[in-house]
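Protocol step 4 of 6: structure prediction from sequence.
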Amino acid sequence: MRGPVTTPSPDAATPNLTPQLTYTERRATAEAELQRLDALSARYANLRAVVFLAGAGVALAVMFGRLPRTGWWAVGAALVTYIALAVLHHQVFLREERQRQYVQLNTRGLARLGRGWHEFAERGERFLVGTHLYAADLDVFGQGSVFQLMNETATRAGEERLAAWLSQPADVAQVRTRQAAARELLPRVDLRQDVCVEARAVAKEKADPGLFIQWAESGPSLTGIRWARPVAVVLPLLTLTLFVLGQLGALPRPLWWGGLLAQLAVVVLTKPPLRAMEELMSAGERGFVRYAPLFERVERERFEHPELRRIQSGLQPEARETVSARLKRFSFLYSFVEFKRHQFHPVVHLFTLWDVHALFALERWREQHGAQVRGWFEALAELEALSCLAGLAHDRPDFLWPELVDSGPQVHARGVGHPLLDAPVPNDVALPGPGCALILTGSNMSGKTTLLRALGLNCVLALAGAPVCARAFTLSPLHVLTSMRVKDSLERGVSYFYAEVQRIKAVLDAAEAARGQALFLLDEILLGTNTRERQIASREVLRLLLATGASGGVTTHDLSLASLAEEHAGRVVNMHFRDHLEDGKMVFDYRLRPGVVDTTNALRVLKMAGVPVEDVPPEPGAPHA
Protein backbone atom coordinates (compact mmCIF):
# COMPACT_ATOMS: atom_id res chain seq x y z
CA MET A 1 0.00 0.00 0.00
CA ARG A 2 1.11 3.52 -0.69
CA GLY A 3 1.46 6.00 2.09
CA PRO A 4 -0.79 8.99 2.56
CA VAL A 5 1.91 11.28 1.19
CA THR A 6 3.79 10.47 -1.99
CA THR A 7 4.43 13.55 -4.06
CA PRO A 8 3.32 17.18 -3.97
CA SER A 9 -0.35 17.73 -4.56
CA PRO A 10 -1.96 18.05 -8.00
CA ASP A 11 0.17 19.45 -10.76
CA ALA A 12 -2.52 21.86 -11.91
CA ALA A 13 -2.18 23.71 -8.64
CA THR A 14 1.35 24.85 -9.50
CA PRO A 15 1.35 25.39 -13.28
CA ASN A 16 3.99 28.17 -13.18
CA LEU A 17 6.71 26.25 -11.37
CA THR A 18 9.93 25.87 -13.30
CA PRO A 19 11.18 22.30 -13.83
CA GLN A 20 13.96 23.04 -11.33
CA LEU A 21 11.48 24.06 -8.62
CA THR A 22 9.10 21.23 -9.47
CA TYR A 23 11.70 18.51 -9.05
CA THR A 24 13.31 20.21 -6.03
CA GLU A 25 10.00 20.53 -4.16
CA ARG A 26 8.87 17.03 -5.04
CA ARG A 27 12.18 15.55 -3.91
CA ALA A 28 12.03 17.53 -0.67
CA THR A 29 8.48 16.27 -0.03
CA ALA A 30 9.53 12.67 -0.67
CA GLU A 31 12.59 13.03 1.56
CA ALA A 32 10.47 14.46 4.39
CA GLU A 33 7.99 11.59 4.06
CA LEU A 34 10.87 9.12 3.99
CA GLN A 35 12.22 10.55 7.26
CA ARG A 36 8.77 10.22 8.83
CA LEU A 37 8.51 6.62 7.67
CA ASP A 38 12.01 5.86 8.95
CA ALA A 39 10.96 7.05 12.39
CA LEU A 40 7.75 4.99 12.18
CA SER A 41 9.77 1.94 11.10
CA ALA A 42 12.03 2.35 14.11
CA ARG A 43 9.01 2.45 16.44
CA TYR A 44 7.62 -0.73 14.90
CA ALA A 45 11.02 -2.39 15.27
CA ASN A 46 11.12 -1.45 18.94
CA LEU A 47 7.56 -2.66 19.53
CA ARG A 48 8.31 -5.98 17.84
CA ALA A 49 11.38 -6.41 20.03
CA VAL A 50 9.37 -5.64 23.19
CA VAL A 51 6.56 -8.03 22.24
CA PHE A 52 9.04 -10.77 21.31
CA LEU A 53 10.97 -10.45 24.56
CA ALA A 54 7.76 -10.31 26.60
CA GLY A 55 6.35 -13.39 24.88
CA ALA A 56 9.62 -15.26 25.25
CA GLY A 57 9.83 -14.31 28.93
CA VAL A 58 6.30 -15.53 29.64
CA ALA A 59 6.96 -18.76 27.72
CA LEU A 60 10.10 -19.47 29.75
CA ALA A 61 8.29 -18.67 32.99
CA VAL A 62 5.50 -21.13 32.12
CA MET A 63 8.01 -23.79 31.05
CA PHE A 64 9.88 -23.54 34.36
CA GLY A 65 6.73 -23.43 36.44
CA ARG A 66 6.98 -19.81 37.51
CA LEU A 67 3.60 -19.09 35.89
CA PRO A 68 0.51 -21.28 35.49
CA ARG A 69 -0.20 -23.02 32.21
CA THR A 70 -2.81 -20.39 31.42
CA GLY A 71 0.20 -18.21 30.65
CA TRP A 72 0.36 -19.90 27.27
CA TRP A 73 -2.65 -17.78 26.30
CA ALA A 74 -0.49 -14.72 26.88
CA VAL A 75 2.24 -16.27 24.74
CA GLY A 76 -0.32 -16.87 21.98
CA ALA A 77 -1.52 -13.27 22.23
CA ALA A 78 2.08 -12.06 22.00
CA LEU A 79 2.62 -14.21 18.91
CA VAL A 80 -0.49 -12.81 17.22
CA THR A 81 0.56 -9.28 18.14
CA TYR A 82 4.07 -9.87 16.80
CA ILE A 83 2.69 -11.17 13.49
CA ALA A 84 0.36 -8.15 13.19
CA LEU A 85 3.24 -5.78 13.90
CA ALA A 86 5.40 -7.59 11.34
CA VAL A 87 2.71 -7.17 8.68
CA LEU A 88 2.34 -3.47 9.49
CA HIS A 89 6.11 -3.04 9.55
CA HIS A 90 6.36 -4.65 6.12
CA GLN A 91 3.86 -2.12 4.76
CA VAL A 92 6.05 0.65 6.11
CA PHE A 93 9.04 -0.91 4.33
CA LEU A 94 7.09 -0.87 1.06
CA ARG A 95 6.11 2.76 1.54
CA GLU A 96 9.71 3.66 2.34
CA GLU A 97 10.87 2.00 -0.86
CA ARG A 98 8.34 3.99 -2.87
CA GLN A 99 9.54 7.24 -1.31
CA ARG A 100 13.12 6.30 -2.17
CA GLN A 101 11.99 5.83 -5.73
CA TYR A 102 10.35 9.27 -5.72
CA VAL A 103 13.58 10.77 -4.42
CA GLN A 104 15.57 8.99 -7.12
CA LEU A 105 13.08 9.93 -9.84
CA ASN A 106 13.18 13.63 -8.96
CA THR A 107 16.96 13.51 -8.65
CA ARG A 108 17.00 12.14 -12.20
CA GLY A 109 14.70 15.00 -13.20
CA LEU A 110 17.17 17.52 -11.84
CA ALA A 111 19.99 15.71 -13.62
CA ARG A 112 18.17 16.08 -16.93
CA LEU A 113 18.10 19.84 -16.48
CA GLY A 114 21.93 19.89 -16.61
CA ARG A 115 24.42 17.39 -17.95
CA GLY A 116 23.83 14.77 -15.28
CA TRP A 117 21.65 12.76 -17.66
CA HIS A 118 24.84 11.64 -19.43
CA GLU A 119 25.37 9.32 -16.44
CA PHE A 120 22.04 7.49 -16.89
CA ALA A 121 22.61 3.77 -17.38
CA GLU A 122 19.89 3.12 -19.98
CA ARG A 123 21.30 4.42 -23.25
CA GLY A 124 19.44 2.24 -25.74
CA GLU A 125 22.46 0.66 -27.43
CA ARG A 126 20.40 -2.47 -28.09
CA PHE A 127 18.30 -0.45 -30.53
CA LEU A 128 21.28 0.61 -32.64
CA VAL A 129 21.20 -1.15 -36.00
CA GLY A 130 24.22 -0.72 -38.24
CA THR A 131 22.11 -0.27 -41.37
CA HIS A 132 19.79 2.34 -39.87
CA LEU A 133 20.00 5.50 -41.95
CA TYR A 134 20.24 8.10 -39.18
CA ALA A 135 20.23 6.67 -35.63
CA ALA A 136 24.00 6.45 -35.13
CA ASP A 137 24.84 9.67 -36.98
CA LEU A 138 22.32 11.76 -35.05
CA ASP A 139 22.90 10.29 -31.56
CA VAL A 140 19.42 8.83 -31.30
CA PHE A 141 20.73 5.92 -29.23
CA GLY A 142 23.91 5.35 -27.26
CA GLN A 143 25.98 7.46 -24.89
CA GLY A 144 24.87 11.10 -24.88
CA SER A 145 21.82 10.29 -27.01
CA VAL A 146 18.33 11.70 -27.13
CA PHE A 147 17.03 8.31 -25.96
CA GLN A 148 19.25 8.51 -22.87
CA LEU A 149 17.82 11.97 -22.18
CA MET A 150 14.15 11.11 -22.74
CA ASN A 151 13.79 7.55 -21.51
CA GLU A 152 11.79 7.39 -18.28
CA THR A 153 9.75 4.31 -19.11
CA ALA A 154 8.56 1.74 -16.58
CA THR A 155 8.70 -1.44 -18.68
CA ARG A 156 10.78 -2.93 -21.47
CA ALA A 157 7.70 -2.70 -23.68
CA GLY A 158 7.54 1.06 -23.04
CA GLU A 159 11.25 1.37 -23.82
CA GLU A 160 10.76 -0.47 -27.10
CA ARG A 161 7.80 1.72 -28.05
CA LEU A 162 9.79 4.91 -27.45
CA ALA A 163 12.71 3.51 -29.46
CA ALA A 164 10.36 2.59 -32.31
CA TRP A 165 8.96 6.12 -32.42
CA LEU A 166 12.47 7.57 -32.59
CA SER A 167 13.49 5.09 -35.29
CA GLN A 168 10.60 5.53 -37.71
CA PRO A 169 8.74 8.73 -38.72
CA ALA A 170 5.02 8.88 -38.13
CA ASP A 171 2.48 10.36 -40.53
CA VAL A 172 0.91 13.78 -40.00
CA ALA A 173 -2.19 12.48 -38.23
CA GLN A 174 -0.16 10.34 -35.83
CA VAL A 175 2.22 13.19 -35.00
CA ARG A 176 -0.62 15.58 -34.26
CA THR A 177 -2.34 12.98 -32.10
CA ARG A 178 0.82 12.28 -30.11
CA GLN A 179 1.49 15.98 -29.67
CA ALA A 180 -1.99 16.63 -28.28
CA ALA A 181 -1.88 13.62 -25.96
CA ALA A 182 1.62 14.54 -24.71
CA ARG A 183 0.49 18.12 -24.07
CA GLU A 184 -2.23 16.80 -21.77
CA LEU A 185 0.30 14.62 -19.94
CA LEU A 186 2.86 17.43 -19.63
CA PRO A 187 1.53 18.97 -16.37
CA ARG A 188 0.57 15.58 -14.92
CA VAL A 189 3.85 14.98 -13.18
CA ASP A 190 2.02 12.98 -10.50
CA LEU A 191 0.75 10.45 -13.01
CA ARG A 192 4.01 10.17 -14.93
CA GLN A 193 6.05 9.63 -11.78
CA ASP A 194 3.48 7.33 -10.17
CA VAL A 195 3.60 5.01 -13.17
CA CYS A 196 7.40 4.77 -12.91
CA VAL A 197 7.40 4.34 -9.14
CA GLU A 198 4.71 1.66 -9.13
CA ALA A 199 6.85 -0.32 -11.56
CA ARG A 200 10.21 0.28 -9.92
CA ALA A 201 8.92 -0.39 -6.42
CA VAL A 202 8.34 -4.03 -7.32
CA ALA A 203 11.31 -4.81 -9.55
CA LYS A 204 15.01 -4.14 -9.12
CA GLU A 205 15.39 -4.17 -12.88
CA LYS A 206 12.96 -3.03 -15.54
CA ALA A 207 10.66 -6.00 -16.00
CA ASP A 208 10.04 -7.56 -19.38
CA PRO A 209 6.53 -9.01 -19.74
CA GLY A 210 7.50 -10.85 -22.91
CA LEU A 211 7.81 -14.28 -21.30
CA PHE A 212 4.47 -13.96 -19.60
CA ILE A 213 2.84 -12.81 -22.84
CA GLN A 214 4.35 -15.87 -24.46
CA TRP A 215 2.76 -18.09 -21.81
CA ALA A 216 -0.57 -16.30 -22.06
CA GLU A 217 -0.70 -16.79 -25.83
CA SER A 218 0.77 -20.30 -25.93
CA GLY A 219 -2.55 -22.12 -25.67
CA PRO A 220 -3.72 -24.89 -23.32
CA SER A 221 -1.01 -26.77 -21.43
CA LEU A 222 -3.11 -29.31 -19.56
CA THR A 223 -5.22 -30.77 -22.36
CA GLY A 224 -3.59 -34.17 -21.93
CA ILE A 225 -4.68 -34.46 -18.30
CA ARG A 226 -8.14 -32.90 -18.41
CA TRP A 227 -9.38 -36.09 -16.78
CA ALA A 228 -7.51 -35.04 -13.63
CA ARG A 229 -9.69 -31.99 -13.06
CA PRO A 230 -12.90 -33.82 -12.00
CA VAL A 231 -10.84 -36.57 -10.39
CA ALA A 232 -9.11 -33.97 -8.18
CA VAL A 233 -12.52 -32.89 -6.89
CA VAL A 234 -14.11 -36.31 -6.36
CA LEU A 235 -11.21 -38.50 -5.25
CA PRO A 236 -10.07 -36.56 -2.12
CA LEU A 237 -13.68 -36.31 -0.97
CA LEU A 238 -14.14 -40.03 -1.53
CA THR A 239 -10.95 -40.82 0.40
CA LEU A 240 -12.04 -38.58 3.26
CA THR A 241 -15.46 -40.26 3.32
CA LEU A 242 -13.89 -43.71 3.47
CA PHE A 243 -11.66 -42.58 6.32
CA VAL A 244 -14.55 -41.14 8.35
CA LEU A 245 -16.77 -44.18 7.77
CA GLY A 246 -13.89 -46.45 8.71
CA GLN A 247 -13.41 -44.57 11.98
CA LEU A 248 -17.13 -44.90 12.69
CA GLY A 249 -17.01 -48.65 12.00
CA ALA A 250 -19.36 -48.48 9.01
CA LEU A 251 -16.62 -49.73 6.67
CA PRO A 252 -13.32 -51.54 7.11
CA ARG A 253 -10.70 -49.06 8.36
CA PRO A 254 -7.93 -49.94 5.83
CA LEU A 255 -10.27 -49.19 2.91
CA TRP A 256 -9.35 -45.48 2.81
CA TRP A 257 -5.75 -46.44 1.97
CA GLY A 258 -7.03 -47.47 -1.46
CA GLY A 259 -8.25 -43.95 -2.05
CA LEU A 260 -4.92 -42.51 -0.88
CA LEU A 261 -3.01 -44.83 -3.23
CA ALA A 262 -5.24 -43.70 -6.09
CA GLN A 263 -4.41 -40.06 -5.23
CA LEU A 264 -0.72 -40.94 -5.23
CA ALA A 265 -1.15 -42.35 -8.74
CA VAL A 266 -2.80 -39.07 -9.84
CA VAL A 267 0.14 -37.12 -8.37
CA VAL A 268 2.64 -39.23 -10.34
CA LEU A 269 0.70 -39.12 -13.63
CA THR A 270 0.07 -35.36 -13.56
CA LYS A 271 3.51 -34.29 -12.36
CA PRO A 272 5.24 -33.76 -15.79
CA PRO A 273 2.58 -31.51 -17.43
CA LEU A 274 1.96 -29.58 -14.20
CA ARG A 275 5.68 -28.94 -13.75
CA ALA A 276 6.07 -27.81 -17.40
CA MET A 277 3.23 -25.33 -17.09
CA GLU A 278 4.51 -24.01 -13.78
CA GLU A 279 8.03 -23.46 -15.11
CA LEU A 280 6.82 -21.61 -18.20
CA MET A 281 4.45 -19.46 -16.19
CA SER A 282 6.91 -18.70 -13.41
CA ALA A 283 9.47 -17.44 -15.91
CA GLY A 284 7.22 -14.50 -16.79
CA GLU A 285 5.33 -13.97 -13.55
CA ARG A 286 7.62 -11.26 -12.20
CA GLY A 287 7.02 -9.05 -15.21
CA PHE A 288 3.27 -9.31 -14.92
CA VAL A 289 1.48 -10.10 -11.70
CA ARG A 290 3.12 -7.37 -9.65
CA TYR A 291 2.08 -4.66 -12.09
CA ALA A 292 -1.55 -4.63 -10.97
CA PRO A 293 -1.04 -1.38 -8.95
CA LEU A 294 0.52 0.25 -12.02
CA PHE A 295 -2.47 -0.59 -14.22
CA GLU A 296 -4.79 0.48 -11.42
CA ARG A 297 -3.08 3.88 -11.24
CA VAL A 298 -3.66 4.46 -14.96
CA GLU A 299 -7.25 3.24 -14.77
CA ARG A 300 -8.28 5.79 -12.17
CA GLU A 301 -6.86 8.79 -14.07
CA ARG A 302 -9.32 11.06 -15.88
CA PHE A 303 -8.25 11.86 -19.42
CA GLU A 304 -9.66 14.38 -21.86
CA HIS A 305 -7.90 13.66 -25.15
CA PRO A 306 -9.47 10.87 -27.26
CA GLU A 307 -6.08 9.18 -27.75
CA LEU A 308 -5.50 8.89 -24.00
CA ARG A 309 -9.06 7.68 -23.54
CA ARG A 310 -8.48 5.09 -26.26
CA ILE A 311 -5.35 3.87 -24.49
CA GLN A 312 -7.18 3.79 -21.17
CA SER A 313 -10.07 1.86 -22.72
CA GLY A 314 -7.55 -0.86 -23.53
CA LEU A 315 -7.07 -1.21 -19.77
CA GLN A 316 -10.79 -1.01 -19.04
CA PRO A 317 -12.54 -3.50 -21.33
CA GLU A 318 -16.28 -3.47 -21.85
CA ALA A 319 -16.56 -6.28 -19.34
CA ARG A 320 -17.21 -5.29 -15.73
CA GLU A 321 -13.77 -6.35 -14.55
CA THR A 322 -10.81 -3.99 -15.13
CA VAL A 323 -7.34 -5.14 -16.13
CA SER A 324 -5.99 -4.45 -12.66
CA ALA A 325 -8.76 -6.59 -11.17
CA ARG A 326 -7.87 -9.39 -13.56
CA LEU A 327 -4.23 -9.12 -12.58
CA LYS A 328 -5.15 -9.23 -8.91
CA ARG A 329 -7.18 -12.34 -9.64
CA PHE A 330 -4.15 -13.88 -11.32
CA SER A 331 -1.96 -12.91 -8.36
CA PHE A 332 -4.42 -14.56 -5.98
CA LEU A 333 -4.47 -17.77 -8.02
CA TYR A 334 -0.71 -17.79 -8.41
CA SER A 335 -0.29 -17.55 -4.65
CA PHE A 336 -1.68 -21.10 -4.46
CA VAL A 337 1.03 -22.26 -6.85
CA GLU A 338 3.67 -20.57 -4.69
CA PHE A 339 2.57 -22.77 -1.78
CA LYS A 340 4.72 -25.40 -3.47
CA ARG A 341 7.74 -23.80 -1.79
CA HIS A 342 6.32 -24.65 1.64
CA GLN A 343 7.82 -27.63 3.44
CA PHE A 344 4.40 -29.22 3.99
CA HIS A 345 3.43 -28.96 0.30
CA PRO A 346 4.06 -32.65 -0.58
CA VAL A 347 1.73 -33.85 2.18
CA VAL A 348 -0.98 -31.30 1.38
CA HIS A 349 -0.74 -32.09 -2.34
CA LEU A 350 -1.04 -35.83 -1.69
CA PHE A 351 -4.17 -35.45 0.43
CA THR A 352 -5.89 -32.70 -1.62
CA LEU A 353 -4.29 -32.83 -5.11
CA TRP A 354 -3.49 -29.15 -4.48
CA ASP A 355 -1.43 -28.49 -7.62
CA VAL A 356 -4.12 -29.87 -9.91
CA HIS A 357 -6.68 -27.42 -8.50
CA ALA A 358 -4.25 -24.46 -8.55
CA LEU A 359 -2.91 -24.90 -12.07
CA PHE A 360 -6.26 -25.73 -13.64
CA ALA A 361 -7.58 -22.49 -12.11
CA LEU A 362 -4.75 -20.59 -13.79
CA GLU A 363 -5.45 -22.45 -17.01
CA ARG A 364 -9.03 -21.15 -16.87
CA TRP A 365 -7.68 -17.64 -16.30
CA ARG A 366 -5.52 -17.96 -19.39
CA GLU A 367 -8.40 -19.26 -21.48
CA GLN A 368 -10.45 -16.21 -20.49
CA HIS A 369 -7.81 -13.47 -20.69
CA GLY A 370 -4.65 -14.79 -22.35
CA ALA A 371 -5.44 -13.37 -25.79
CA GLN A 372 -5.84 -9.88 -24.28
CA VAL A 373 -2.57 -9.71 -22.33
CA ARG A 374 -0.47 -8.34 -25.20
CA GLY A 375 -2.97 -5.56 -25.79
CA TRP A 376 -2.80 -4.51 -22.13
CA PHE A 377 0.95 -4.08 -22.22
CA GLU A 378 0.86 -2.40 -25.61
CA ALA A 379 -1.58 0.17 -24.24
CA LEU A 380 0.66 0.72 -21.23
CA ALA A 381 3.74 0.99 -23.48
CA GLU A 382 2.06 3.66 -25.58
CA LEU A 383 1.21 5.67 -22.49
CA GLU A 384 4.82 5.36 -21.30
CA ALA A 385 6.17 6.60 -24.63
CA LEU A 386 3.75 9.55 -24.62
CA SER A 387 4.86 10.34 -21.07
CA CYS A 388 8.46 10.53 -22.31
CA LEU A 389 7.42 13.07 -24.96
CA ALA A 390 5.62 15.04 -22.27
CA GLY A 391 8.65 14.77 -19.99
CA LEU A 392 10.92 16.30 -22.63
CA ALA A 393 8.48 19.20 -23.07
CA HIS A 394 8.33 19.65 -19.29
CA ASP A 395 12.11 19.62 -18.82
CA ARG A 396 12.79 21.84 -21.84
CA PRO A 397 10.15 24.60 -21.60
CA ASP A 398 11.94 26.58 -24.33
CA PHE A 399 11.28 23.76 -26.83
CA LEU A 400 8.15 24.10 -28.96
CA TRP A 401 5.72 21.77 -30.66
CA PRO A 402 6.45 21.78 -34.41
CA GLU A 403 3.86 22.37 -37.07
CA LEU A 404 3.20 19.63 -39.61
CA VAL A 405 2.18 20.25 -43.21
CA ASP A 406 1.11 17.66 -45.76
CA SER A 407 3.06 18.71 -48.86
CA GLY A 408 6.81 18.36 -49.07
CA PRO A 409 9.55 17.69 -48.58
CA GLN A 410 10.04 20.96 -46.77
CA VAL A 411 11.60 22.20 -43.54
CA HIS A 412 11.40 25.74 -42.19
CA ALA A 413 13.32 26.25 -38.95
CA ARG A 414 13.79 29.55 -37.19
CA GLY A 415 16.23 29.68 -34.30
CA VAL A 416 16.97 25.96 -34.51
CA GLY A 417 19.55 24.53 -32.12
CA HIS A 418 20.94 21.14 -31.23
CA PRO A 419 18.53 19.58 -28.67
CA LEU A 420 21.33 17.81 -26.77
CA LEU A 421 23.49 20.88 -26.18
CA ASP A 422 23.14 22.98 -23.03
CA ALA A 423 23.32 26.35 -24.80
CA PRO A 424 23.02 25.83 -28.55
CA VAL A 425 23.53 28.78 -30.88
CA PRO A 426 20.29 29.23 -32.86
CA ASN A 427 20.28 29.50 -36.65
CA ASP A 428 17.65 29.79 -39.34
CA VAL A 429 17.33 27.08 -42.00
CA ALA A 430 14.91 26.87 -44.92
CA LEU A 431 14.38 24.03 -47.37
CA PRO A 432 11.18 25.25 -49.01
CA GLY A 433 10.42 22.39 -51.38
CA PRO A 434 11.55 19.39 -53.42
CA GLY A 435 15.08 19.39 -54.76
CA CYS A 436 16.41 22.10 -52.44
CA ALA A 437 19.81 21.95 -50.78
CA LEU A 438 22.16 23.87 -48.54
CA ILE A 439 25.87 23.65 -49.30
CA LEU A 440 27.67 24.45 -46.07
CA THR A 441 31.26 25.59 -46.16
CA GLY A 442 33.36 26.84 -43.30
CA SER A 443 36.52 26.48 -41.33
CA ASN A 444 37.18 23.48 -39.12
CA MET A 445 35.20 23.32 -35.86
CA SER A 446 32.99 26.20 -36.97
CA GLY A 447 29.68 24.33 -36.59
CA LYS A 448 28.83 22.86 -39.99
CA THR A 449 28.27 19.27 -38.84
CA THR A 450 26.52 20.38 -35.66
CA LEU A 451 23.99 22.29 -37.75
CA LEU A 452 23.27 19.20 -39.85
CA ARG A 453 22.81 17.11 -36.73
CA ALA A 454 20.63 19.78 -35.13
CA LEU A 455 18.39 19.87 -38.19
CA GLY A 456 18.23 16.09 -38.50
CA LEU A 457 17.65 15.32 -34.84
CA ASN A 458 14.94 17.95 -34.53
CA CYS A 459 13.19 16.41 -37.54
CA VAL A 460 13.42 12.99 -35.85
CA LEU A 461 11.90 14.42 -32.67
CA ALA A 462 9.20 16.26 -34.59
CA LEU A 463 8.15 13.16 -36.52
CA ALA A 464 8.08 11.11 -33.30
CA GLY A 465 5.58 13.60 -31.84
CA ALA A 466 8.04 15.37 -29.52
CA PRO A 467 8.85 19.06 -29.12
CA VAL A 468 11.90 20.52 -30.86
CA CYS A 469 14.71 22.95 -30.04
CA ALA A 470 13.67 25.96 -32.13
CA ARG A 471 11.70 29.19 -32.00
CA ALA A 472 9.60 28.05 -34.97
CA PHE A 473 9.64 24.75 -36.82
CA THR A 474 7.52 23.57 -39.74
CA LEU A 475 8.07 20.40 -41.70
CA SER A 476 6.37 17.80 -43.83
CA PRO A 477 6.49 14.02 -43.34
CA LEU A 478 9.89 12.89 -44.58
CA HIS A 479 12.59 10.27 -44.14
CA VAL A 480 15.83 11.45 -42.58
CA LEU A 481 18.89 10.03 -44.40
CA THR A 482 22.44 10.68 -43.21
CA SER A 483 26.04 9.89 -44.03
CA MET A 484 28.29 11.27 -41.30
CA ARG A 485 30.04 8.67 -39.15
CA VAL A 486 31.07 6.11 -41.70
CA LYS A 487 33.43 3.44 -40.35
CA ASP A 488 35.62 0.92 -42.08
CA SER A 489 35.46 -2.74 -41.06
CA LEU A 490 38.46 -5.01 -40.89
CA GLU A 491 36.18 -7.90 -40.01
CA ARG A 492 34.17 -7.48 -43.21
CA GLY A 493 37.21 -6.45 -45.23
CA VAL A 494 35.66 -3.08 -46.10
CA SER A 495 37.81 0.03 -46.49
CA TYR A 496 36.69 3.45 -45.32
CA PHE A 497 36.09 4.63 -48.88
CA TYR A 498 34.03 1.60 -49.86
CA ALA A 499 32.05 1.79 -46.60
CA GLU A 500 31.21 5.40 -47.49
CA VAL A 501 30.21 4.41 -51.01
CA GLN A 502 27.90 1.75 -49.60
CA ARG A 503 26.34 4.30 -47.27
CA ILE A 504 25.77 6.80 -50.07
CA LYS A 505 24.19 4.07 -52.18
CA ALA A 506 21.84 3.25 -49.30
CA VAL A 507 20.92 6.94 -48.98
CA LEU A 508 20.21 7.20 -52.72
CA ASP A 509 18.11 4.02 -52.71
CA ALA A 510 16.12 5.23 -49.68
CA ALA A 511 15.50 8.64 -51.28
CA GLU A 512 14.18 6.97 -54.41
CA ALA A 513 12.03 4.58 -52.38
CA ALA A 514 10.58 7.56 -50.48
CA ARG A 515 9.79 9.23 -53.82
CA GLY A 516 11.72 12.28 -52.79
CA GLN A 517 9.99 12.71 -49.42
CA ALA A 518 13.36 12.70 -47.71
CA LEU A 519 15.88 14.92 -45.96
CA PHE A 520 19.49 14.03 -46.77
CA LEU A 521 22.35 15.21 -44.56
CA LEU A 522 25.84 14.48 -45.86
CA ASP A 523 29.00 15.42 -44.00
CA GLU A 524 32.26 15.68 -45.96
CA ILE A 525 31.46 12.80 -48.28
CA LEU A 526 34.01 10.71 -50.19
CA LEU A 527 37.04 11.74 -48.18
CA GLY A 528 38.76 8.46 -48.98
CA THR A 529 39.78 9.41 -52.52
CA ASN A 530 41.79 12.10 -54.31
CA THR A 531 40.62 15.69 -54.58
CA ARG A 532 39.70 15.69 -58.27
CA GLU A 533 37.62 12.51 -58.17
CA ARG A 534 36.01 13.58 -54.91
CA GLN A 535 34.86 16.84 -56.49
CA ILE A 536 33.39 15.07 -59.50
CA ALA A 537 31.76 12.29 -57.48
CA SER A 538 30.34 14.67 -54.86
CA ARG A 539 28.67 16.80 -57.51
CA GLU A 540 27.21 13.70 -59.15
CA VAL A 541 25.88 12.30 -55.84
CA LEU A 542 24.20 15.61 -55.02
CA ARG A 543 22.73 15.79 -58.52
CA LEU A 544 21.26 12.30 -58.17
CA LEU A 545 19.76 13.09 -54.77
CA LEU A 546 18.17 16.30 -56.03
CA ALA A 547 16.78 14.40 -59.00
CA THR A 548 14.73 12.22 -56.63
CA GLY A 549 13.05 15.34 -55.25
CA ALA A 550 14.73 15.01 -51.88
CA SER A 551 16.07 18.07 -50.05
CA GLY A 552 18.91 18.42 -47.58
CA GLY A 553 22.30 19.74 -46.67
CA VAL A 554 25.92 18.96 -47.49
CA THR A 555 29.06 20.11 -45.70
CA THR A 556 32.22 20.43 -47.72
CA HIS A 557 35.69 21.97 -47.90
CA ASP A 558 35.66 21.70 -51.71
CA LEU A 559 34.56 25.13 -52.83
CA SER A 560 34.02 23.83 -56.35
CA LEU A 561 30.86 22.16 -55.07
CA ALA A 562 29.53 25.62 -54.29
CA SER A 563 29.16 26.28 -58.02
CA LEU A 564 26.05 24.06 -57.97
CA ALA A 565 24.18 27.06 -56.61
CA GLU A 566 24.61 28.71 -60.00
CA GLU A 567 23.44 25.60 -61.84
CA HIS A 568 20.35 25.22 -59.61
CA ALA A 569 19.49 28.83 -58.99
CA GLY A 570 16.95 29.31 -56.23
CA ARG A 571 17.06 25.68 -55.14
CA VAL A 572 20.67 25.21 -54.07
CA VAL A 573 21.98 27.83 -51.65
CA ASN A 574 25.50 28.42 -50.34
CA MET A 575 25.82 29.11 -46.62
CA HIS A 576 28.91 29.21 -44.42
CA PHE A 577 30.37 29.42 -40.92
CA ARG A 578 33.55 31.29 -40.09
CA ASP A 579 35.98 32.05 -37.31
CA HIS A 580 38.16 35.05 -36.47
CA LEU A 581 41.23 35.81 -34.38
CA GLU A 582 41.11 37.60 -31.04
CA ASP A 583 44.41 38.05 -29.24
CA GLY A 584 45.90 35.34 -31.39
CA LYS A 585 43.18 32.84 -30.56
CA MET A 586 40.51 31.42 -32.83
CA VAL A 587 36.98 32.45 -31.89
CA PHE A 588 33.81 30.84 -33.29
CA ASP A 589 30.38 32.41 -33.14
CA TYR A 590 28.61 29.41 -34.82
CA ARG A 591 26.40 31.77 -36.83
CA LEU A 592 25.21 30.70 -40.25
CA ARG A 593 25.89 33.25 -42.96
CA PRO A 594 24.99 33.41 -46.66
CA GLY A 595 27.57 32.73 -49.32
CA VAL A 596 30.83 30.78 -49.46
CA VAL A 597 33.50 30.94 -46.76
CA ASP A 598 36.65 32.87 -47.62
CA THR A 599 38.91 31.88 -44.71
CA THR A 600 40.79 28.75 -43.66
CA ASN A 601 42.12 27.55 -40.30
CA ALA A 602 43.60 24.08 -40.75
CA LEU A 603 47.17 25.23 -40.02
CA ARG A 604 46.03 27.25 -37.02
CA VAL A 605 44.25 24.19 -35.60
CA LEU A 606 47.43 22.14 -35.99
CA LYS A 607 49.44 24.78 -34.19
CA MET A 608 46.85 24.92 -31.37
CA ALA A 609 47.31 21.17 -30.93
CA GLY A 610 51.09 21.63 -30.66
CA VAL A 611 52.04 20.41 -34.14
CA PRO A 612 54.99 22.57 -35.29
CA VAL A 613 53.84 23.30 -38.86
CA GLU A 614 55.11 26.22 -40.95
CA ASP A 615 52.82 28.80 -42.45
CA VAL A 616 52.18 28.16 -46.14
CA PRO A 617 50.88 31.05 -48.24
CA PRO A 618 47.64 30.16 -50.02
CA GLU A 619 47.77 29.50 -53.71
CA PRO A 620 45.94 32.02 -55.88
CA GLY A 621 42.40 30.80 -56.49
CA ALA A 622 42.84 27.80 -54.21
CA PRO A 623 39.55 25.87 -54.14
CA HIS A 624 39.72 24.74 -50.53
CA ALA A 625 38.43 26.32 -47.33
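Step 5 (inspection) to follow. The longest helix spans residues 19-63.
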